[in-house]
Design brief:
Layout: E1 4-5, E2 38-39, E3 44-47, E4 50-55, E5 58-59, E6 67-68, H1 70-91, E7 97-100, H2 119-128, E8 132-135, E9 148-150, E10 153-157
Parallel strand pairs: 1-2, 4-7, 5-6, 7-8, 8-10
Antiparallel strand pairs: 3-4, 9-10
């Protein structure tokens, strides 16, 4: 199984640099992000027979990359939903796992605006009912956050780490 990830609000921008004005090179610079890992932000991938989609980033609370308003994330989620529906028509599979940095709205027990989560994630989970939705961004600092559900989907905070059996 490849190591899949989505960027978080403290990660640098993973947009590749504009090379159009650079002289020709025999070697390209390494792709941004952790080497040997697969960035699934805004993408759907197949891994070990599972369809896995990802959306990185958090709610915008200061200047910086990987931070979005609710409206911006709604647009990103709609594009991912469109790709998911196309894939579903093509091969009869729904979404198995949704990986996000921020939580779905309403499941974080957060009171500050930076951690309340995205409404668009809850909508994706309700529409596609993946087996599993995993997120980070909410740091429990030693306490165990219980597994939640949206319909049949298990929603799990994986901070600091978690072993999950599917």
């Amino acid at each position: 199984m490849p190591l899949l990830y989505v960027p978080g609000n403290h990660d640098p921008s993973l947009e590749p640099p504009d090379m159009s004005w650079m002289p020709l090179r025999t070697e390209l610079p390494p792709a941004p992000g952790p080497q040997g890992c697969v960035n699934i932000d805004g993408r759907i991938v197949q891994a070990n027979g599972l369809r896995i989609a990802g959306l990185g980033g958090s709610i915008r609370y200061k200047a910086g990359p990987n931070q979005y308003s609710q409206a911006q994330m709604r647009w990103r989620a709609l594009k991912l939903e469109f790709r998911t529906r196309l894939g579903r028509v093509r091969n009869g599979r729904k979404l198995d796992i949704l990986v996000t940095h921020a939580p779905p709205f309403g499941l974080a027990d957060a009171v500050d605006s930076a951690h309340v989560g995205f409404v668009a994630f809850a909508r994706l989970i309700r529409n596609f009912q993946p087996l599993l939705a995993v997120h980070g961004h909410i740091h429990p600092y030693g306490r165990q956050i219980p597994e939640r559900r949206i319909k049949a989907a298990r929603v799990i905070n994986v901070v600091p780490s978690r072993m999950i059996e599917i």
